[in-house]
Amino acid sequence: MQAPSSYSRTDADLVARMRARDESAITDLDAAYRSRIQQLALRYVKSPEDAEEVAQDVLLKVYLKIDAFRGDAALSSWIYRITFNTVMSRLRGQRMTQLHEVRELDLLSDVEENGGRVRREPADWSSRGDEAIMRAQLRTRLA
Fold it and tell me: How far apart are CA 133 and CA 106, in angstroms?
């Protein structure tokens, strides 16, 4: 069987070995793509440690999901798409965690300032879209 022209013979061999669950293919995948995955991830996550974790996640996903690779494009393109998706997912998760952490810190400082009681503030309705109209109508009635 001839390898598709959209990716190299080396990649075709690597894909075939991964599909056969040849564990030595993991080492070759790592050697061929880890540094490129880390470089791409580092553009987004800004931390070498996070980029390393992304690379590990991506390499594992590639190995586990290799049957989903159709071969329409280069293996590297498929791996870079997985890398990008993994990075974006990680950033979304971090953003949500940071939002929760900030709120928790605000709550703790409020509790400390209020002698151990949680401060309950009324909702701010002043920014409602119809507020100006309602005020004008109220002024007219009062006048």
Answer: 34
